[in-house]
Specification:
This protein is mainly alpha-helical and about 230 residues long. It has a single domain, classed as Rna Polymerase Sigma Factor, Chain: A, CATH 1.10.1740. Helix 2 crosses helix 3, helix 2 crosses helix 4 and helix 4 crosses helix 7.
Length: about 230
């Protein structure tokens, strides 16, 4: 493969094969289009798998380098997005296996070995209070997602976050469509159960009235009583 070079930027709607061929020819601008087009989805897959922002970003960079060097192997049998997802997931699962070996720990759920190679939309018009609530809900959901076994977590992000089809997810993970469906169902069930527990705990604190709130009301009432007695 030739060294990175910059040619006139390809159109944003260039098809997968055309972009791949330009990358094979060493076109830096074409590969930039590829990365920008797929960055969000691929990062989410890496983050869902590795549970660490910095590690996910590093894995994504390594996967992109591998994809650039291997682009000649892409023949258009699947979408470029699916092909790249397989490369990214392979990098992530490889890291998890290396970490498991270093720690000599057996994962709770076996890591997928089939691969060879804002959860909520932003709304500029929403109030700061609503934006804060959405942010807190997103953080809670991300926290609960991180607690899922990797096999379930990855499928959930593919299906519910990235809205990939069952067929796409199955091709990315090289598993059956039935397995994708069962893992997605299990992931959703585990999330519901975990979130329900959080709600149950929060119920006891709903409309909490203590501390400064209590002191303020008591002080105000006593002050009014004192004023009335004087009157």
């Amino acid at each position: 493969m030739s060294e990175l070079s910059r040619s006139p930027a390809p159109p944003l709607d260039a098809d997968d094969r055309a972009l791949a061929q330009r990358v094979v020819n060493g076109d830096h601008s074409a590969f930039e289009v590829v990365m920008r087009r797929h960055n969000r989805r691929l990062y989410r897959l890496a983050r869902a798998t590795l549970k660490n922002d910095a590690e996910a970003e590093d894995a994504l960079q390594e996967a992109y380098l591998r994809a650039y060097r291997s682009m000649a192997q892409y023949h258009g049998d699947s979408t470029l997005s699916t092909w790249l997802a397989r490369v990214v997931l392979n990098e992530c699962f490889g890291r998890l296996r290396r970490d498991a070996r270093r720690q000599n720990v057996i994962p709770l759920v076996a890591l997928p070995n089939e691969i060879d190679v804002d959860l909520m939309p932003d709304n500029d018009a929403e109030s700061p209070d609503k934006a804060l609530i959405r942010s807190q809900m997103r953080e809670l959901l991300e926290k609960k997602l991180d607690q899922l076994p990797v096999a379930f977590r990855t499928v959930f992000v593919m299906r519910s976050v990235e809205e990939m089809t069952v067929e796409e997810a199955a091709r990315c993970l090289d598993i059956s469509e039935a397995t994708v469906r069962s893992r997605h169902f299990r992931a959703r069930s585990l999330l519901r159960e975990s979130l329900a527990q959080e709600i149950d705990l929060a119920e006891h604190d709903a409309f909490e009235f203590g501390g400064a709130h209590c002191d303020r009301v008591v002080a105000a009432v006593l002050a009014r009583l004192k004023a009335q007695l004087k009157g």
